[in-house]
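Internal tracking record. Fields below are filled automatically when a chain is submitted to the structure queue. Please do not edit lines marked as system-generated. If the sequence contains nonstandard residues, flag them in the REMARKS field before resubmitting.
Queue: standard
Priority: normal
Entity type: single polypeptide chain
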Amino acid sequence: MSLVPPIITVMEKACKNASKSLIRDFGELEKLQISKKDMNDFVSSADIKASKSIAYSLSKDKPDFLQIDEETYQSSDIEKLNQDKPLFIIDPLDGTLNFMHGIPFFAVSIGLVVRKEIIAGAIYNPILNEFFWAHKGSGAWLNGTRIRVSNRRHLEDCMIATGFQIKHQDSLPSYFKELQVIGSKTGIRRLGSAAMDLAYVANGKFDGFWEHNLKIWDIAAGIILVKEAGGVVLNEKGKNFDLSTDLSLIASNPSIYEELIKNL
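SYSTEM-GENERATED OUTPUT FOLLOWS
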Protein backbone atom coordinates (compact mmCIF):
# COMPACT_ATOMS: atom_id res chain seq x y z
CA MET A 1 0.00 0.00 0.00
CA SER A 2 1.14 3.54 -0.76
CA LEU A 3 2.05 5.87 2.09
CA VAL A 4 -1.13 7.86 2.61
CA PRO A 5 -0.51 11.61 2.28
CA PRO A 6 -1.38 13.51 5.48
CA ILE A 7 -4.03 15.62 3.73
CA ILE A 8 -5.86 12.44 2.73
CA THR A 9 -5.95 11.41 6.39
CA VAL A 10 -7.57 14.77 7.18
CA MET A 11 -10.15 14.32 4.42
CA GLU A 12 -10.86 10.72 5.38
CA LYS A 13 -11.52 11.73 8.98
CA ALA A 14 -13.94 14.42 7.83
CA CYS A 15 -15.76 11.99 5.52
CA LYS A 16 -16.11 9.27 8.10
CA ASN A 17 -17.10 11.54 10.98
CA ALA A 18 -19.89 12.99 8.86
CA SER A 19 -20.94 9.52 7.78
CA LYS A 20 -21.73 8.38 11.32
CA SER A 21 -24.94 10.39 11.33
CA LEU A 22 -25.66 9.47 7.70
CA ILE A 23 -25.53 5.78 8.59
CA ARG A 24 -27.87 6.31 11.54
CA ASP A 25 -30.33 8.34 9.51
CA PHE A 26 -30.20 5.94 6.57
CA GLY A 27 -31.44 3.24 8.93
CA GLU A 28 -34.25 5.45 10.21
CA LEU A 29 -35.45 7.25 7.11
CA GLU A 30 -38.97 7.68 8.38
CA LYS A 31 -37.68 9.98 11.17
CA LEU A 32 -35.96 12.41 8.82
CA GLN A 33 -37.40 15.89 8.43
CA ILE A 34 -37.46 16.69 4.69
CA SER A 35 -37.91 20.17 3.23
CA LYS A 36 -38.12 21.17 -0.42
CA LYS A 37 -35.16 23.15 -1.76
CA ASP A 38 -35.69 23.20 -5.51
CA MET A 39 -37.61 21.31 -8.16
CA ASN A 40 -36.90 17.61 -7.69
CA ASP A 41 -33.90 18.53 -5.55
CA PHE A 42 -34.31 17.94 -1.84
CA VAL A 43 -32.11 18.51 1.12
CA SER A 44 -32.53 16.35 4.20
CA SER A 45 -31.66 16.97 7.80
CA ALA A 46 -28.97 14.34 7.30
CA ASP A 47 -27.44 16.43 4.51
CA ILE A 48 -27.23 19.50 6.73
CA LYS A 49 -25.75 17.58 9.67
CA ALA A 50 -23.09 16.07 7.40
CA SER A 51 -22.26 19.50 6.00
CA LYS A 52 -21.76 20.98 9.46
CA SER A 53 -19.67 18.01 10.58
CA ILE A 54 -17.34 18.25 7.58
CA ALA A 55 -16.94 22.02 7.91
CA TYR A 56 -16.05 21.66 11.58
CA SER A 57 -13.58 18.81 11.04
CA LEU A 58 -11.76 20.45 8.12
CA SER A 59 -11.67 23.86 9.82
CA LYS A 60 -10.19 22.31 12.92
CA ASP A 61 -7.44 20.44 11.05
CA LYS A 62 -6.82 23.00 8.30
CA PRO A 63 -8.00 26.39 9.59
CA ASP A 64 -6.25 28.34 6.82
CA PHE A 65 -7.92 26.41 3.99
CA LEU A 66 -10.99 27.81 2.26
CA GLN A 67 -14.19 25.82 1.75
CA ILE A 68 -17.00 25.61 -0.81
CA ASP A 69 -19.89 23.44 0.33
CA GLU A 70 -23.01 22.65 -1.69
CA GLU A 71 -25.28 23.29 1.27
CA THR A 72 -23.88 26.73 2.14
CA TYR A 73 -22.90 27.84 -1.36
CA GLN A 74 -23.33 31.46 -2.42
CA SER A 75 -22.54 32.78 -5.89
CA SER A 76 -19.59 34.78 -4.55
CA ASP A 77 -17.94 31.56 -3.36
CA ILE A 78 -16.77 30.78 -6.88
CA GLU A 79 -14.17 33.54 -6.49
CA LYS A 80 -12.40 31.30 -3.98
CA LEU A 81 -11.07 29.34 -6.96
CA ASN A 82 -9.01 32.40 -7.90
CA GLN A 83 -7.33 32.72 -4.52
CA ASP A 84 -3.96 31.26 -3.60
CA LYS A 85 -5.17 29.50 -0.47
CA PRO A 86 -5.99 25.78 -0.75
CA LEU A 87 -9.70 25.17 -1.21
CA PHE A 88 -11.84 22.24 -0.12
CA ILE A 89 -14.84 21.59 -2.40
CA ILE A 90 -17.43 19.60 -0.50
CA ASP A 91 -20.57 17.66 -1.30
CA PRO A 92 -21.76 16.31 2.06
CA LEU A 93 -24.25 13.95 0.45
CA ASP A 94 -24.05 13.28 -3.28
CA GLY A 95 -27.02 11.16 -4.25
CA THR A 96 -29.55 12.70 -1.84
CA LEU A 97 -32.56 11.21 -3.61
CA ASN A 98 -31.01 7.73 -3.48
CA PHE A 99 -30.43 8.25 0.24
CA MET A 100 -34.03 9.36 0.81
CA HIS A 101 -35.37 6.32 -1.01
CA GLY A 102 -33.19 3.85 0.86
CA ILE A 103 -30.88 3.14 -2.07
CA PRO A 104 -27.28 2.68 -0.81
CA PHE A 105 -25.60 4.49 -3.70
CA PHE A 106 -24.54 7.85 -2.31
CA ALA A 107 -21.35 9.39 -1.01
CA VAL A 108 -19.56 12.10 0.89
CA SER A 109 -17.20 13.85 -1.54
CA ILE A 110 -14.32 16.24 -0.82
CA GLY A 111 -11.92 17.66 -3.40
CA LEU A 112 -8.88 19.82 -2.71
CA VAL A 113 -7.95 22.55 -5.18
CA VAL A 114 -4.80 24.67 -5.21
CA ARG A 115 -4.61 27.52 -7.74
CA LYS A 116 -7.45 25.99 -9.80
CA GLU A 117 -5.78 22.57 -9.93
CA ILE A 118 -7.38 19.60 -8.19
CA ILE A 119 -4.60 17.93 -6.21
CA ALA A 120 -6.54 15.52 -3.98
CA GLY A 121 -9.92 13.91 -3.67
CA ALA A 122 -11.83 11.63 -1.32
CA ILE A 123 -15.17 9.88 -1.93
CA TYR A 124 -16.77 7.70 0.73
CA ASN A 125 -19.86 5.51 0.47
CA PRO A 126 -20.53 4.68 4.14
CA ILE A 127 -23.08 1.95 3.48
CA LEU A 128 -20.83 -0.04 1.14
CA ASN A 129 -17.75 1.04 3.14
CA GLU A 130 -15.93 2.15 -0.01
CA PHE A 131 -13.35 4.86 0.64
CA PHE A 132 -11.80 6.13 -2.58
CA TRP A 133 -8.93 8.60 -2.53
CA ALA A 134 -6.42 10.08 -4.92
CA HIS A 135 -3.56 12.53 -4.59
CA LYS A 136 -1.57 14.06 -7.39
CA GLY A 137 1.34 11.73 -8.17
CA SER A 138 0.21 9.07 -5.68
CA GLY A 139 -2.33 7.17 -7.77
CA ALA A 140 -5.93 6.29 -6.95
CA TRP A 141 -6.93 3.93 -4.17
CA LEU A 142 -9.90 2.05 -2.74
CA ASN A 143 -9.66 0.80 0.84
CA GLY A 144 -5.90 0.41 0.60
CA THR A 145 -5.82 -1.19 -2.86
CA ARG A 146 -4.52 0.61 -5.95
CA ILE A 147 -7.19 1.05 -8.61
CA ARG A 148 -7.01 1.74 -12.35
CA VAL A 149 -9.43 2.45 -15.14
CA SER A 150 -10.56 -0.39 -17.37
CA ASN A 151 -8.66 -1.47 -20.46
CA ARG A 152 -11.63 -2.12 -22.74
CA ARG A 153 -10.89 -0.72 -26.18
CA HIS A 154 -14.23 -0.70 -27.99
CA LEU A 155 -17.36 1.18 -27.02
CA GLU A 156 -19.58 -1.80 -27.81
CA ASP A 157 -17.87 -3.80 -25.04
CA CYS A 158 -18.25 -1.07 -22.42
CA MET A 159 -20.56 0.03 -19.66
CA ILE A 160 -21.11 3.80 -19.59
CA ALA A 161 -22.59 5.76 -16.70
CA THR A 162 -24.55 8.97 -17.08
CA GLY A 163 -26.85 11.32 -15.25
CA PHE A 164 -29.43 14.00 -15.88
CA GLN A 165 -31.40 16.44 -13.76
CA ILE A 166 -35.11 16.98 -14.34
CA LYS A 167 -34.85 20.58 -13.16
CA HIS A 168 -32.88 21.39 -16.34
CA GLN A 169 -35.87 20.87 -18.63
CA ASP A 170 -34.40 22.79 -21.57
CA SER A 171 -31.47 20.40 -21.92
CA LEU A 172 -33.45 17.16 -21.70
CA PRO A 173 -34.33 16.79 -25.42
CA SER A 174 -30.70 17.01 -26.53
CA TYR A 175 -29.63 14.72 -23.70
CA PHE A 176 -32.17 12.08 -24.66
CA LYS A 177 -30.80 12.16 -28.21
CA GLU A 178 -27.33 11.43 -26.80
CA LEU A 179 -28.80 8.67 -24.69
CA GLN A 180 -30.37 7.10 -27.75
CA VAL A 181 -27.13 7.19 -29.74
CA ILE A 182 -24.90 5.84 -26.98
CA GLY A 183 -27.55 3.34 -25.91
CA SER A 184 -27.67 1.89 -29.40
CA LYS A 185 -23.99 1.04 -29.15
CA THR A 186 -23.35 -0.06 -25.57
CA GLY A 187 -24.78 -0.50 -22.08
CA ILE A 188 -25.77 2.56 -20.04
CA ARG A 189 -26.45 2.96 -16.33
CA ARG A 190 -27.91 5.95 -14.50
CA LEU A 191 -27.30 5.40 -10.78
CA GLY A 192 -27.84 8.87 -9.34
CA SER A 193 -24.48 9.98 -7.95
CA ALA A 194 -21.89 11.65 -10.16
CA ALA A 195 -19.25 11.27 -7.45
CA MET A 196 -19.74 7.51 -7.25
CA ASP A 197 -20.01 7.22 -11.04
CA LEU A 198 -16.57 8.81 -11.39
CA ALA A 199 -15.16 6.65 -8.60
CA TYR A 200 -16.41 3.59 -10.45
CA VAL A 201 -14.79 4.81 -13.68
CA ALA A 202 -11.53 5.10 -11.73
CA ASN A 203 -12.06 1.59 -10.40
CA GLY A 204 -12.75 0.13 -13.84
CA LYS A 205 -16.34 -0.88 -13.07
CA PHE A 206 -17.62 1.72 -15.51
CA ASP A 207 -15.63 2.39 -18.66
CA GLY A 208 -16.86 5.94 -19.08
CA PHE A 209 -19.21 8.63 -17.83
CA TRP A 210 -20.85 11.77 -19.21
CA GLU A 211 -23.20 14.36 -17.78
CA HIS A 212 -24.23 17.98 -18.32
CA ASN A 213 -25.13 20.84 -15.95
CA LEU A 214 -22.74 19.65 -13.27
CA LYS A 215 -21.59 21.63 -10.25
CA ILE A 216 -18.02 21.67 -8.99
CA TRP A 217 -18.89 19.79 -5.80
CA ASP A 218 -20.38 16.95 -7.86
CA ILE A 219 -17.11 16.19 -9.60
CA ALA A 220 -14.04 17.78 -7.98
CA ALA A 221 -12.97 14.66 -6.09
CA GLY A 222 -13.97 12.31 -8.90
CA ILE A 223 -11.91 14.12 -11.50
CA ILE A 224 -8.60 13.48 -9.79
CA LEU A 225 -9.60 9.91 -9.01
CA VAL A 226 -10.10 9.21 -12.72
CA LYS A 227 -6.90 11.00 -13.72
CA GLU A 228 -4.75 9.28 -11.10
CA ALA A 229 -6.28 5.94 -12.12
CA GLY A 230 -5.01 6.51 -15.66
CA GLY A 231 -8.19 7.90 -17.17
CA VAL A 232 -9.11 10.93 -19.24
CA VAL A 233 -11.35 13.82 -18.18
CA LEU A 234 -12.57 16.29 -20.83
CA ASN A 235 -15.35 18.75 -21.56
CA GLU A 236 -17.98 18.16 -24.26
CA LYS A 237 -15.66 19.66 -26.89
CA GLY A 238 -12.89 17.18 -26.14
CA LYS A 239 -10.74 19.80 -24.42
CA ASN A 240 -9.25 19.64 -20.93
CA PHE A 241 -11.97 20.14 -18.36
CA ASP A 242 -11.91 23.56 -16.68
CA LEU A 243 -13.37 23.44 -13.19
CA SER A 244 -14.25 27.13 -13.17
CA THR A 245 -16.13 27.29 -16.49
CA ASP A 246 -17.16 23.87 -17.82
CA LEU A 247 -20.51 22.30 -16.95
CA SER A 248 -20.35 19.17 -19.12
CA LEU A 249 -17.90 16.39 -18.35
CA ILE A 250 -16.75 13.25 -20.11
CA ALA A 251 -14.52 10.74 -18.33
CA SER A 252 -13.29 7.39 -19.54
CA ASN A 253 -10.36 5.09 -20.00
CA PRO A 254 -7.83 6.31 -22.60
CA SER A 255 -8.97 3.87 -25.28
CA ILE A 256 -12.59 4.91 -25.78
CA TYR A 257 -12.80 8.63 -25.12
CA GLU A 258 -12.53 9.61 -28.79
CA GLU A 259 -15.28 7.19 -29.78
CA LEU A 260 -17.41 8.33 -26.85
CA ILE A 261 -17.09 12.01 -27.73
CA LYS A 262 -17.78 11.30 -31.41
CA ASN A 263 -21.13 9.79 -30.47
CA LEU A 264 -22.24 12.63 -28.21
